[in-house]
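User: Can you help me understand a structure? I only have the sequence.
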Amino acid sequence: MTGHWPHQVEINPDRTTAAERLRRIEAWCTDWQIGFRVLGTMTEDLIRVAFEEARFARAFHAHFGGVIAPAEELDMALAADAVDVDLYDRLAGEYPD
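Assistant: Let's start by predicting it. Here is the structure, written out as tokens:
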């Protein structure tokens, strides 16, 4: 589900300096010819920077800080949701209206 951008680093930029920090991130990735995507999160103050390769995420983390997000976090969450739906469907079948 995470596609070609599974390696992600979560950062919490200060609102007053967020635009400048994102410009520095873009310039750094461009200089090193690193493909990246900036992703939103459910938490307002957090963003994720996603990379195709783990080495790029590690280099970004070493340079800009942040927290490396588990590569399969979204896939695991979606799988857990599917298990919950299956359980609900099975219980609904056992206890009809």
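Now, to help you interpret it: The helical segments are 18-31, 54-64, 73-94. The first helix runs from residue 18 to 31. Let me know which part you'd like to focus on.
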